[in-house]
């Protein structure tokens, strides 16, 4: 049994870390690699930002559930993704992905080409390039993207509800606990949860805004 | 051009794979929390009764119970999608028998455990007096809450009764749907809907007054339960089912307005 607070933090942490890893790769691809049909990839990645969360949840449920690859995953890995915390992580990660890609994309695009050029001319190995040139320039973007993704994952309701259900102690995150508390007319519990979520939300949001201001030149 | 697209797919494909696998594999809680707790998916009309029964069951057996309340139709759909429930207590029998036909619940475990009633509920502070269904025609009532008849048995019964009373057409524009009977109750409790139709089992709250609706106006609300086939705790689930239907559970059910089928019959499953 986990409280909605612990579950929410757990889900949002893993979702944002996963989405940050994948999102950075995709952002790299979109900024640094020239290929045709880039707009299709970009569209697919941005889709969770504009598609209704319930639609996203429906697709994920169909794909990961008993009508999709669910039985296969159970056979091979021995567990069920839907209606489990891992299902909540996947739903939240997909929802968080666009925000992360967008943020990291901006940082990557802002790297002055001369610096990259210099590194390359000096014969830096890819790992050294990454550590000495890219990382110092984009860590703020990565951090900001990760935090925004975390917030988006923390706040997800529709997609998570459809993929992971609303099982107390197992998949009931804070957003769902609020929904439940309101339905049960338990206004004091709803307000408590609301205060916690609001504080985390604003706190981290202000942090990201400051982070961005500090990264501006001058 | 094709090779470029392939190149991008070569990154995107594995990335999505990583996204799914990483997040799935790094989910210790998904395994850790599953045993020990008995998860009962229960129709929302059971909220008050089952919470009381659950507390008593925990006292008697030292076994933790978690309830997932929702509309019966939504819970049945979640079982089809593989939700990890141990027992399903529906607000009608048809969702249970249709799951039994698909072998998603154990056909031999299907049993009736209660018959429910619907009531006409009015928010106390609204100043409205409504004791019969035609009273709902009053223009003073801006919103009338019922549960979504598409997937909630108590909503379906409410709609049937309104049709039988000949007022459905007239009041339809003012109807608002709760997702389950608990939400419908909340709409009326809050006064967002001045009146509505809910189950007798949740009507005992200070904010509302209520009147029973004639049973003849709708099909009987015979509630059935069954053990979920994929449950790893089927014996425990059966134990809880017998508890609900036994000498400790029944008085609580009765207190919350449920009546019992004359004899517990195992539902015929083709």
* CATH fold type of the largest domain in chain B: D-Maltodextrin-Binding Protein, domain 2
Radius of gyration of chain A: 20 Å
Looking at how many chains there are and whether they match, the oligomeric state comes to: heterodimer
CATH class of the largest domain in chain B: Alpha Beta
Secondary structure: helix percent of chain A: over 70%
Number of strands of chain B: 10
Explain the overall architecture:
The complex is a heterodimer of chains A (218) and B (270). The longest helix of chain A has 30 residues, at 126-155. Chain A has 218 residues and is mainly α. Chain A has a single domain, classed as MetI-like fold (Orthogonal Bundle), CATH 1.10.3720. Chain A is built from ten helices and no strands. The relative contact order of chain A is 0.16. Chain A is globular, with a radius of gyration of 20 Å. In chain B, strand 1 (38-43), helix 3 and strand 2 form a beta-alpha-beta unit. Chain B folds into two domains: 36-115 and 220-255, 3-Layer(aba) Sandwich (D-Maltodextrin-Binding Protein, domain 2), CATH 3.40.190; 118-212, D-Maltodextrin-Binding Protein, domain 2, CATH 3.40.190. The longest helix of chain B has 24 residues, at 2-25. Chain B has 270 residues and is an alpha/beta fold. In chain B, 50% of the residues are buried. In chain B, the strands form two sheets. A five-stranded mixed sheet of chain B has the order 2-1-3-10-4, sandwiched between helices. A five-stranded mixed sheet of chain B has the order 7-6-8-5-9, with helices on both faces. In chain B, 39% of the residues lie in helices and 19% in strands.
């Amino acid at each position: 049994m986990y409280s909605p607070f612990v579950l929410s933090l757990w889900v949002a942490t893993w979702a944002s870390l996963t989405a940050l890893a994948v999102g950075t790769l995709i952002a790299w691809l979109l900024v640094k690699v020239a290929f045709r049909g880039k707009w299709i990839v970009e569209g697919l990645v941005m889709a969770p930002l504009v598609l209704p969360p319930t639609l996203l949840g429906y697709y994920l449920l169909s794909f990961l559930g008993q009508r999709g690859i669910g039985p296969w995953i159970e056979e091979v890995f021995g567990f069920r993704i839907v209606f489990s915390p891992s299902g909540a992580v996947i739903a939240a990660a997909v929802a968080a992905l666009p925000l992360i890609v967008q943020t990291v994309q901006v940082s990557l695009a802002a790297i002055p080409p001369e610096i990259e050029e210099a590194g390359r001319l000096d014969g830096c190995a890819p790992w050294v390039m990454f550590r000495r040139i890219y990382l110092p320039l984009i860590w703020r973007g990565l951090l900001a993207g990760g935090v925004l993704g975390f917030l988006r994952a923390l706040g997800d309701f529709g997609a998570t509800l459809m993929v992971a259900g609303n099982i107390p102690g197992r998949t009931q995150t804070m957003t769902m606990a609020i929904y439940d508390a309101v339905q049960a007319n338990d206004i004091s519990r709803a307000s408590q949860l609301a205060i916690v979520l609001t504080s985390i939300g604003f706190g981290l949001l202000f942090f990201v805004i400051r982070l961005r201001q500090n990264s501006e030149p001058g | 051009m094709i090779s470029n697209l392939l190149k991008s797919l070569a990154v995107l494909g594995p990335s999505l794979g990583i996204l799914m696998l990483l997040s799935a594999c790094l989910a210790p809680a998904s395994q850790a929390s599953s045993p020990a707790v008995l998860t009962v998916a229960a129709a929302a009309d059971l909220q008050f009764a089952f919470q009381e029964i659950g507390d008593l069951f925990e006292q008697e057996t030292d076994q933790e119970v978690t309830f997932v309340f929702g509309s019966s139709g939504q819970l049945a759909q979640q079982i089809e999608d593989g939700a990890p429930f141990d027992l399903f207590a529906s607000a009608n029998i048809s969702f249970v028998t249709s799951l039994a036909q698909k072998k998603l619940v154990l056909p031999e475990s299907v049993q009736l455990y209660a018959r429910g009633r619907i009531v006409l509920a009015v928010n106390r502070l609204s100043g409205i007096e409504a004791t019969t269904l035609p009273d709902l025609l009053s223009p003073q009532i801006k919103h009338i809450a019922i549960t979504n008849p598409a997937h909630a048995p108590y909503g379906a019964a409410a709609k049937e009764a309104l049709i039988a009373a000949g007022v459905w057409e007239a009041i339809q524009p003012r109807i608002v749907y709760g997702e389950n009977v608990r939400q419908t109750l909340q709409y009326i409790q809050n006064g967002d809907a001045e009146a509505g139709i809910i189950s007798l089992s949740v009507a005992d709250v200070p904010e509302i007054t209520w009147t029973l609706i004639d049973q003849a106006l709708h099909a009987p609300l015979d509630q059935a339960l069954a053990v979920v086939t994929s449950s790893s705790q089927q014996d425990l689930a059966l134990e809880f089912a017998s508890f609900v239907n036994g000498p400790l559970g029944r008085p609580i059910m009765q207190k919350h307005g449920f009546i019992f089928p004359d004899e517990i019959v195992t539902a015929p499953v083709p």
